[in-house]
C-alpha cells in the first residue's frame, strides 16, 4: 500500500506540476491577449485618427476647390462683361466711323456738285483733306482687281476704275442705275 500511496503522491505531484504549468501558460496567454488587444485598440485609434484627418483634408480640399470654382466663375463673368463692353465699344466706333464716312462722302459729293467754277486741283485737295494725303482707299478696283488709274465715284458712294464702269449700266455693288459718274484724279 505504501507503493500505491507513493505512486499516488507521485501522480498527484505530476498533476500539480502540470496544473501549475497550465496556469503559467494560461497567465502568459492572458498577458499576450491583453497586449495584443491593447495593440489592436491603439491601431484602431490610429486608424480612426487617420480617417478623421483624411476626412478633414478632403473637406478642406473640397472647400478650396469650391473657392477656386467661385473665383473662376467671377473671372468668367468679368471676362464676359469685358468682352461685351469691348464689343459694344467697337460697335459704337464702327457706327461713329460709318457716320463720319457718310458725312465725308456727303461733303465730297457736295464739293463735287459745287465745283462748276472750282479747279480740279482744289477738288483734289478737298478729297485729300477728307481721306488723307495718300488715297489708299482707291488703290484696287473691286471689279477687275487691278490698280486703279481713273477712279470713278458713283452717286451711291461706290467707286471703281473708269474702264470697268464704262462697261456697266448699274452699280456692281448695289445694282443702282448709273446716272452720273464723278472722276477723281489721284496722281
Short summary:
The protein is mostly helical and 187 residues long. It has helices at residues 2-113, 120-131, 162-165, and strands at residues 151-153, 159-161, 182-184. A hairpin with a 5-residue loop joins strand 1 and strand 2.
Protein described:
The chain has 187 residues and is mainly α. It folds into 2 domains: 35-118; 134-187, Zinc/RING finger domain, C3HC4 (zinc finger) (Herpes Virus-1), CATH 3.30.40.10. The chain is built from 3 helices and 3 strands; from the N terminus they run H-H-E-E-H-E. The chain has helices spanning 2-113, 120-131, 162-165; strands spanning 151-153, 159-161, 182-184. It has a 3-stranded antiparallel sheet with strand order 2-1-3. Residues 133-138 have low confidence and may be disordered.
Bulk shape: rod-shaped
* Helix run count: 3
CA distance, first residue to last residue = 156 Å
Q: For the report, how would you describe the main beta sheet?
A: 3 strands, antiparallel
**Spatial arrangement of strands, main beta sheet:** 2-1-3
The pLDDT mean sits at 80
Q: H/E order of the elements? A: HHEEHE
Helix content: 55-70%
| Low-confidence blocks of residues | 133-138
Strand content: under 5%
Radius of gyration, taken over Cα atoms and rounded to an integer in Å: 52 Å
Question: What is the strand tally?
Answer: 3
Number of domains: 2
Class of secondary structure makeup:
mainly alpha
Amino acid at each position: 500500500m505504501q507503493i500505491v500511496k507513493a505512486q499516488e503522491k507521485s501522480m498527484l505531484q505530476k498533476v500539480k506540476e502540470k496544473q501549475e504549468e497550465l496556469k503559467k501558460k494560461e497567465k502568459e496567454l492572458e498577458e499576450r491577449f491583453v497586449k495584443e488587444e491593447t495593440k489592436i485598440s491603439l491601431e484602431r485609434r490610429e486608424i480612426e485618427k487617420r480617417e478623421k484627418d483624411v476626412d478633414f483634408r478632403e473637406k478642406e480640399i473640397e472647400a478650396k476647390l469650391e473657392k477656386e470654382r467661385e473665383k473662376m466663375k467671377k473671372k468668367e463673368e468679368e471676362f464676359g462683361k469685358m468682352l461685351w463692353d469691348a464689343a459694344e465699344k467697337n460697335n459704337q466706333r464702327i457706327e461713329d466711323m460709318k457716320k463720319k464716312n457718310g458725312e465725308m462722302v456727303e461733303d465730297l459729293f457736295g464739293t463735287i456738285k459745287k465745283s462748276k467754277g472750282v479747279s480740279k486741283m482744289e477738288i483734289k485737295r478737298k478729297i485729300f483733306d477728307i481721306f488723307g494725303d495718300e488715297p489708299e482707299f482707291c488703290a484696287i478696283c473691286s471689279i477687275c482687281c487691278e490698280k486703279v488709274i481713273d477712279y470713278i465715284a458713283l452717286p451711291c458712294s461706290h467707286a471703281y476704275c473708269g474702264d470697268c464702269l464704262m462697261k456697266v449700266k448699274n452699280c456692281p455693288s448695289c445694282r443702282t442705275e448709273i446716272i452720273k459718274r464723278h472722276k477723281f484724279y489721284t496722281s
